[in-house]
Design goal:
This protein is of the alpha/beta class. It has 2 domains: 238 residues, Type I PLP-dependent aspartate aminotransferase-like (Major domain) (Aspartate Aminotransferase, domain 2), CATH 3.40.640; 133 residues, Aspartate Aminotransferase, domain 1, CATH 3.90.1150. It is 35% helix and 12% strand. The protein is built from 13 helices and 10 strands. The strands form 2 sheets. A 7-stranded mixed sheet has the order 1-7-6-5-4-2-3, sandwiched between helices. α2 packs parallel to α8. It comes from Nonomuraea jiangxiensis. This is dTDP-4-amino-4,6-dideoxygalactose transaminase. Its cofactor is pyridoxal 5'-phosphate.
Length: 391
């Protein structure tokens, strides 16, 4: 019988269990499901802040909401620019547009798909307000260089850590703590989940104040029914928070397990590494996915070969990088294109090549075993050569 690869859409691929059921029952029996008057969301914020060593953590309804809060914290004027990566979920970019700012896509490092600081530096201009970096697949981005750029130009540095729970930066800090704001996601497919949910972390009191107000419709609860600033209802429910707290207790084990089997796969694939196959750097990686880079451009062929062997692998991660998404040139609000009039995202050749031909990703899971690793390694080792390479 073919070995099953657990995935995060099924019980066998998650760590959901009795602890989460008990947490839900605790909240339901309390009669208070709203976090304004409840205790679970505030407790989750305290636990996240303690884990990350941050002064503030703000819970919200989704990872995309957390990114929206981070853009609100950066306070761009209409038409200001935020530099980000084209290899990411649209949830990274949607909040930029929601605040009437303009996303500017910088190219990536072809070895791992993370933002190239040199490409970012070349795009900084008078309208640049922030840099939004994604720690792609759980690999730490070159955050030290990006922080220096941000500080040099007076920009807000936002870290999107949706895929990077407990990713370690050089020096031992967690991803999310090197920028001005870090964001986390609790969506179904992340390391831990409550279905949907998000958090922001920051050491800046003023940024925390802006984000907390925006989460609750700009409502300063201490002042009565008074709205201090514009905002939305991005509140996390007590049910989400209770499940997230139970999941948070399991997070170190989840990441440790993913790291253990990823290290096994790297070790067994090491003899195959060379010009045709680049292995990911393990340092600090949290392994949301396991990426491989094939500089020769045969990622689609290898992905098809692995899939035929029952391995959850696919080429490219996205259908196209976001700078090539079909939405550009279409209306933003009603029939208006504001703030994207005359907007044409610049080419990002490294990102475009990765998505079209050199990047391959393998779904990763804390329930993988050494047997799963062996099946993957054997399939990679037996990949068919391109005809051109045999000529």
């Amino acid at each position: 019988m073919t070995l099953h690869f657990p995935n995060m859409a099924e019980p066998a691929g998650r760590t959901l269990g009795d602890e989460e059921v008990a947490a839900l029952e605790r909240v339901i029996r309390s009669g208070m499901l709203n976090s304004v008057w409840g205790t679970e969301a505030r407790a989750l914020e305290h636990e996240i802040a303690e884990l990350y060593g941050s002064r503030h953590a703000i819970a919200c309804s989704s990872g995309t909401a957390a990114l929206h809060l981070s853009v609100v914290a950066a306070a761009p004027d209409p038409g200001d620019e935020i530099i980000t990566t084209p290899i990411t979920d649209f949830g990274t970019v949607a909040p930029i547009l929601a605040q009437n700012a303009v996303p500017v896509f910088a190219d990536v490092d072809p070895s791992d798909g993370n933002l190239d600081p040199g490409a970012v530096a070349a795009l900084i201009g008078p309208r640049t307000r922030a840099i939004m970096v994604v720690h792609l697949f759980g690999a730490p981005a070159r955050i030290g260089e990006l922080r220096r750029l941000a500080d040099l130009h007076g920009l807000t540095l936002i870290e999107d850590c949706a895929q990077a729970w407990l990713t370690e930066l050089p020096g031992g800090r967690f991803a999310g703590t090197a920028g001005h704001v870090g964001t986390l996601s609790l969506q179904q497919w992340k390391h831990i989940t409550c279905g949907d949910g998000g958090l922001t972390i920051t050491d800046d009191d003023e940024l925390a104040r802006r984000m907390r107000l925006f989460t609750d419709k700009g409502w300063d609860r201490a002042a009565g029914r008074s709205h201090e600033s514009p905002g939305l209802n991005y509140r996390m429910t007590e049910l989400q928070a209770a499940v997230a707290r139970a999941q948070l207790a399991k997070l170190p084990g989840v990441v440790a397990s993913r790291r253990r089997t990823a290290a096994e796969l790297i070790e067994v694939l090491r003899p195959l590494e060379g010009p045709a196959l680049r292995l990911p750097r393990a340092d600090g990686h949290a392994w949301w996915l396991f990426p491989l880079v094939l500089p020769g451009g045969d990622a689609p062929e290898l992905a098809a070969h692995l899939s035929a062997a029952g391995i959850p692998a696919r080429a490219g991660y996205l259908k196209e990088p976001l700078n090539r998404a079909p939405l550009w040139g279409r209306p933003v609000y009603g029939s208006s294109r504001y703030p994207l009039e005359h907007y044409d995202p610049a080419p990002c050749p490294e990102a475009e090549r990765m998505v079209s031909s050199t990047l391959l990703i393998i779904d990763w899971n804390e329930h993988y075993t050494s047997e799963h690793v062996k099946i993957i390694a054997d399939a990679v080792a037996s990949r068919p050569e391109r005809a051109s390479s045999r000529d």
